Model the fold of this input.
Amino acid sequence: MDAISSGLQWFVNLGASVMLPILLFFFALILRIKPSKAFKAGLTIGIGFIGLNLVIGVLTKNLGPAAQSMVKNFGLHLGTIDIGWPAASAIAYGTVLGSLAIPVGVISNVILLLLGLTKTLDVDVWNYWHIAFTGSLVYVVSHSFALGLFTMVVHVMIIYLLADMAAPHIQKQYGLEGISFPQGASAPGYILALPLNWIMDRIPGINKIKMTPDTIQKRMGIFGDSSVMGLFIGIVIGILARYSVTKTLQLGVSTAAVLVLMPRMVSLLMEGLTPISEGANNFVKSRFPGRDLYIGMDSALAAGNSTVLSSALILVPLTLFIAVIVPGNHVLPFGDLATLPYMIAVMAAVFRGDIFRTIVGGVVDVIISLYIASWVAPLVTAAAQGAKFNLQGNSSISVLSDGGVWTTWLIVGLGKVMTWGGIGLIGLVTLALMVWYNKFRGKKDKNHGNDAVEADN
Done:
């Protein structure tokens, strides 16, 4: 058991830029793609992830200090610190229970695919840390290892269901053919965005606002260009951080660079994914006629979209402001401020790339996330202590992204109150929805949701 756990931990520690190319190389061979083509595709994906991480590093390196300065300037004093997803993933994978998340996720995925209850083939195994996170929290409240494992199975089912349902929107808005986003911090945004989009479609005046990158550029000319928008947003953040003129301009140019470079790194990733995606679909169609297959990937593929990135950068100061004025909030947003693009990636697709709606949806999401993250903070702190995570002097920690997502509140809340009955109830409802969506609904809608996407437009 220890040897298996250590082996899995070693593989996870390779990071996405090494782990994914290895997995996808062998997956491509199974699909009977030529070894040379499979190797090149895997390597290209690895290079794309390194490029993506470099660009995200530029964003984090510049945004982090600016956020700290804004916290000081606004005089924020909140008792729980948002440690961000990197620290949360370390906590999630830092226990024996957490280390089993990858085999639990992979086995669940294979079974559900064989039963035709999901269309998502999840190759982004690193992001199984999301289910390790909720499994660990339920273990904290229940002290049941078996219930923690069962929680991970139920949570991953929810993620696959949401990924399948959101996939048509993702593919249409971002041009990511055959891709879905089974990521725990992104996929739940689909359920939040649907009613918000419906409401905004029916509010006079609001339903006339159209603020896509294309419409902004048409109306504003050069000032609507993504690079110029990035410069402007960066300068505004620099002013709010009370930076010097020099540092403000440097932040502006760095932000502009992120908006320009991120889509190019995503294009590189897609260059490597395309032959594998095509091979997977051909493989499935030849053996399972009439079935579609989505390749499950990180929502980082949408993080470089102009709508997503511009909206997320605008949401940074708004998030800090909201944290102060929302009564009952105890969480100081910090670590996950750079994760905002991931949190709104699926929502932006449902909003058809509209920046105004994405910002409104992002504000609603942030408010909900702050309340849930405040509620779950004691459990996150206890899980961190159990994983021997260094709290660095903080008495209370939480996570704005995964700690604040509604699935965490649902799963951990029912797991705490009803234990096996609560998690079992969620599992049964999710299973029923999977059967409805992939079996009965599929017979009526051969396009698997494309009609719904068209209706939105």
Notes: The mean pLDDT is 85. The radius of gyration is 21 Å. The CA atoms of residues 121 and 177 lie 14 Å apart.
